[in-house]
C-alpha cells in the first residue's frame, strides 16, 4: 500500500488516505434532474459555515495491521448495479490508512437516496471484530468496474479513496499514479492543506452506456468545491473533470489538476545498495505542451532535499506525468510491472490564461512513498467571494501525447566531468525524424543555462545502436544554488526534438 510524502519543507511522511468524513445526516434530496448545480449549491452553503473536521472511525479499525486489513474484502455479489449494464461499483472498507468514511448517494430516474453501510457487504477473514463495527460506519471509497480487458469480466477502472485522491487505468494497464481533486499550499513552508471528498453521488448509467458520471463534494479548511467526473473507459480511459470552488479563505497557492506519482530511482544514477532492479518508478518525467506549441520534458528525480520547479505558460495546452520507459527489462519486476503503469495527460477545457506548471520532487527513502506532485497554478483568480471554475480532461494512456515523429529524450544520465568542478550530462534522443538522418547530418544542440552556469563542452553524435542521436555536454554549476538547464536538437534551423529541461542541485 503506497503512502504519500507531504510536500512541506520538512518533507515529513504522511499516509495518503487521511481525510474522509461520513456524514450521518439525512440524505441530500434532489429535484428530479439532479446534477452538478445541486452539488455546487451544497458546496456554496457549506463554505458559509465554519469548517468541521472529519470524525475518525473507531480506533480498533485504524490500529489493525496491513495483513489484517487485507483480510477485509468486498463481496462481489453485493456490487452495485450488478443486475445489468456495463458498469458496477464495489466499495472500500474503512480502516488502517483509511481513517475516515465518506457518504455515498445513489442517483437514478427516481431521485437520490443514501446508500447505507452494511457489514454483510464484506467478508472479514480471520478478523474477529465484525460485531463491533458501527451500523452507520460508512465507506472509505469505491471502485468503478467495467469490462475493460475482457468482454465478460469486470475490471476496476477508477478508484476514489482517501482525501481527494482517485486513480484510473486504461486497457491492459495496472494502477500507478494518482490524481487529486485539488492541491493547496503544496511544498510551501507553511505546510500543505489536504482537502477531501466529503460526499459522493453515483449516477446510474443507462444499460448500454459507455460512460459513467460521478459527483463529489470537496471540503477543507480553506474552501469547498463541487466536482463532476465523467469516466469513459477504453484503450485510453478519459476522465472529464468539472469543478467549482467556494472559498472560506484564500490559500497561498491553489493547484489545479494535480497528479501524484512515485519516483525512487532510474537510469540517471546507480541503484541503491541491495536493490536488484534496474529502475523503480511509476512515472519518469513531466511533459508540458505550452501555448506556443513547445514540448518540454523534465526527467523526474529523487532529490537529496525538497526540489521545486516552475514552468511559466500562457494558454497551456497540456501537462502530465508520463512513464516513458516501457520495456520490462527496464525494471525486471514481475510483481509491480512498472512498465504497465499509465501515463496521465491533462488537457484544459477552454483557456486557462497565464500561470505556471509546478513540479514538486520530495526526497524518499522508500518506493512506497508518492513523492512527485505536478499541477497548474493560475496567475489570476476571481475576487474572493466569487466561485472559481475550471474544467479539464485527464487521459490515461500507454502511448504519449503528440507527434510520434518528434524527437524524445528517452534517457538522461549524468556524472563527473573532466574537471573536478564539472558535471557531465548524456541525453539520448530518439524519434522517426532523427532516425532518418544520416550520421554526417549537421545536427546540433541548442543549450541554455541559468545564471552563473558555464557550458564547458558539447558534442552531438549519431547513435548507431538505436538510430537516435546522443547529446553529451559538460557544465560548471554554481556551488550554492540550483542550475536550470534546457537543450534541444536542431538541423538547419528545423527543431528536431522536444526541449529537455533539468534542474541540477547544488
Walkthrough of the structure:
The protein is mainly β and 506 residues long. The protein folds into three domains: 196 residues, Beta-galactosidase, Chain A, domain 5 (Distorted Sandwich); 152 residues, Distorted Sandwich (Beta-galactosidase, Chain A, domain 5), CATH 2.70.98; 97 residues, Immunoglobulins (Immunoglobulin-like, Sandwich), CATH 2.60.40.10. It contains four helices and 36 strands. The protein has a 15-stranded mixed beta sheet that branches. Strands 4, 8, 9, 10, 11, 12, 17, 22, 25 and 27 form a ten-stranded antiparallel beta sheet that branches. A hairpin with a 6-residue loop joins strand 32 and strand 33. The chain is globular, with a radius of gyration of 24 Å.
Features:
single chain, 506 residues, mainly beta, Beta-galactosidase, Chain A, domain 5, Immunoglobulin-like, 3 domains, 15-stranded mixed beta sheet, ten-stranded antiparallel beta sheet, 4 helices, 5% helix
CATH architecture of the largest domain: Distorted Sandwich
CATH classification class of the largest domain = Mainly Beta
The third-level CATH topology of the largest domain is Beta-galactosidase, Chain A, domain 5
> How confident overall, as mean pLDDT?
91
User: Approximately what portion of the residues adopt beta-strand conformation?
Assistant: 35-45%
Please estimate the helix content.
Answer: under 10%
Q: Indicate the low-confidence ranges by residue numbers.
A: 4-28
Number of domains in the coordinates?
Answer: 3
